[in-house]
Write the structure tokens for this entry.
Amino acid sequence: MPVGDLGPDEVVTASPDSDLEEITQTLDSENVGAIVITEDDTPAGIVTDRDAALAIHQHDDVASVSVEDVMTEDPATIQEDAEAIEISRAIGEHDVRRFPVVDEDGSLTGIVTLDDLIATIGEQLDNVADTIEVQSPDYSP
């Protein structure tokens, strides 16, 4: 299954000139754990709920902090036509849980997370279990 088929189709985005107050309000109102910062439909950064929480200890006036001060610049991305298992490789390589999904031109098309990988593996394991049960009628988990 290609990565582009996983995760939400609509990605919550913001511009680099946003401030942290706007970002935290959006994280809350959209009930998401990350916002992709875009420039011309290309991921320029990502701000996670963890980034926002850590900013509290690093800045005196958190509300006026620029998103550029807390975002991860040039986030690791994954191609929309990559196979879902590539999420696992990317997690190991980049030590992050969320990846903006991009097309061949680098434009943002989605977002995938560790949770999407776990759900995909779960579905595959269900398929394997069904096959085992069909082929081994005496098998009982």
User: Anything to note?
Assistant: The chain has five helices and seven strands. The chain has one domain: 3-135. Residues 3-135 form a domain with the CBS-domain fold (CATH 3.10.580.10). The longest helix spans residues 114-135.
